[in-house]
Amino acid sequence: MSSYDVIVIGSGPGGYVCAIRCAQLGLKTACVEGRETLGGTCLNVGCIPSKALLHASHQLHEAEHNFAKMGLKGKTPSVDWKQMLAYKQETIDTNTKGIEFLFKKNKVDWIKGWASIPGAGKVQVGDEVHEAKHIVIASGSQVSTIPGVTVDEKTVVTSTGALELPKVPKTMAVIGAGVIGLELGSVYARLGAEVTVLEYLDGITPGMDLELARAFQKTLTKQGLKFVLGAAVQKVAPGKSNATVTWRAKGSDKDETLKTDVVLVATGRKPFTDGLGLEALGVEMTERGQIRTGAEWQTNVKGIHAIGDAIEGPMLAHKAEDEGMAVAEVLAGKHGHVNYGVIPAVVYTHPELSSVGETEEQLKAAGRDYKVGKFSFMGNGRAKANFAGDGFVKILADKESDRILGAHIIGPMAGDLIHEICVAMEFGASAQDLAMTCHAHPTYSEAVREAALACGDGAIHA
Ligand code: FAD
């Protein structure tokens, strides 16, 4: 039996970041992980592998559509799927090994196996019981499916199966037009699959600023994805070499069917807390199965904190990381803080989408007086040179004070561009503050400045 100041359960972006920061702050720390490798969902079957496939398939798209325009002639590359999967795996491996290295460097003990909490201050892994002054649960999330759907990870797959299909399917149905479904759907569309997205709601990417979501749907449609909105999926049945989706248009009593090589079920994720023994401990949960936390991510059981996908809030790696760092600060007797009003969200398709703060719909619903500054990438020299003129930057600012309330971007490098607005928002900046900041030319960032200018006297290149 070993004794620690902190034992973190789970080594995803919440858990590993928390463990490293705890150790850096002088706490004796261990991190328990049930998987073979560190890094959680994010590094093993989430953010990192999906971005590797998005990157590779985007390169193919560039070669097919834009190389010749720039005078780059020659045979368009063909897809060696096995090699693409090997590249994806290598990307995973270098990242998970990187966490292993950081654990060693920071003297975090990696306890291998599945943990349970037999009592406050105790963590059991296999036959061993370890003691800890503080326990941080960072057990993450798992795929959540809908009734009537049988997943076999062959013809009916979750995102995990979709990251390692044996071959590129000719046809694919994606159930759910959220971020994960659309990112993976666009990977396979670029690789040549005919992709149909079935979504119960009347629009895609629910919760996103509506103007952005509509522009996104148009762009994806242009790229060849088909959308069936208002489709209530009744059943998905796996077959030997294909699968059948039965769905019904909202308000109709007639079943429709779609036979397809692969069905990707991307209907969301739910917290994963199985096997931890939380019920016996009396840890309070929300109605949605999340661990309920109060101030400083403390559960109702003294000495047990929880962070990341296992608790409330957006299921995002960087939200989990921020909570991990903040809890570590708290456990070290310092002050930990996460500003939930400034957590960016990104969709890594091409073009990318990003968003932070309030949407226009939220501001309207709150009856807030606001102004909109918008700028199209068509007016940005760099974007035009790079065939990336599709899209816009939209900044929402308070009508009176000019304080930035939110920003929504669809266009090149949107996932990176959003951060200057995040920093501005953290400092309580006005749109004018952004507009008065010199931006290098020619950069995509100039479009952000122009949108800020458009909140005031007007953009220059519009
Ligand atoms: P996780 O990463 O889920 O890690 C939890 C870990 O805890 C797991 O490794 C699990 O094995 C371990 N564990 C659980 N219970 C125990 C136990 N009892 N004992 C020992 N170990 C245990 N987010 C983004 O921000 N950007 C993206 O681009 C993005 N892309 C995604 C793409 C896909 C396909 C998916 C599925 C998700 C994506 N996400 C993305 C979401 C992101 O992966 C999660 O928000 C993030 O991983 C949550 O981190 P976490 O630390 O809370 O949990």
Automatic annotation (TrEMBL):
Coiled-coil zones: none
Active site: residue positions: H441
Keyword match NAD: yes
GO MF entry, a single one: flavin adenine dinucleotide binding
Cross-referenced PROSITE patterns: PYRIDINE_REDOX_1
Keywords in alphabetical order: Disulfide bond, FAD, Flavoprotein, NAD, Nucleotide-binding, Oxidoreductase, Redox-active center
SS bond partners: C42-C47
Reaction catalysed by this enzyme: N(6)-[(R)-dihydrolipoyl]-L-lysyl-[protein] + NAD(+) = N(6)-[(R)-lipoyl]-L-lysyl-[protein] + NADH + H(+)
Binding site for NAD(+): G176, A177, G178, V179, I180, G181, L182, E183, E199, G268
GO biological process annotation, one example: 2-oxoglutarate metabolic process
Cofactor binding: number and manner: Binds 1 FAD per subunit.
Documented EC number(s): 1.8.1.4
Swiss-Prot/TrEMBL cofactor(s): FAD
Binding site residues for FAD: K51, D309, M315, L316, A317, H318
One Gene Ontology cellular component annotation held by this UniProt entry: cytoplasm
First-tier enzyme category under EC: oxidoreductase
UniProt keyword DNA repair present: no
Family per record: Belongs to the class-I pyridine nucleotide-disulfide oxidoreductase family.
NCBIfam families documented for this protein: lipoamide_DH
Further comment found in the protein's record: The active site is a redox-active disulfide bond.
The protein's name in its UniProt record: Dihydrolipoyl dehydrogenase
